[in-house]
């Protein structure tokens, strides 16, 4: 019996925002042809400007802190600049005004609670 397996299996990258008012998203990272793609700085910034900020503006948000982990696409200089312009000092991120504490179980509930089940 011959079974062919792809060298690089299909991947799916999904982003969403969790806040007291609910969930914004999910956002699926896909290219123009609709194929799943990995996230880089350009794609992440496009998602923030084209999807997240307009969605956020649809809600009556008085005060918001934006928090993200230290992934390279999240912490590229142009990404941090965009987030600082958008959220001022209300940014918790590596290289942000409030530094992201790595491996902090109280700040990464998805890593330590949701996916650990």
Automatic annotation (TrEMBL):
InterPro entries: RNaseH_sf. One of its GO terms (molecular function) is nucleic acid binding. It comes from the Eukaryota. This is Transposase. It comes from Trichonephila clavipes. The gene is 105261593.
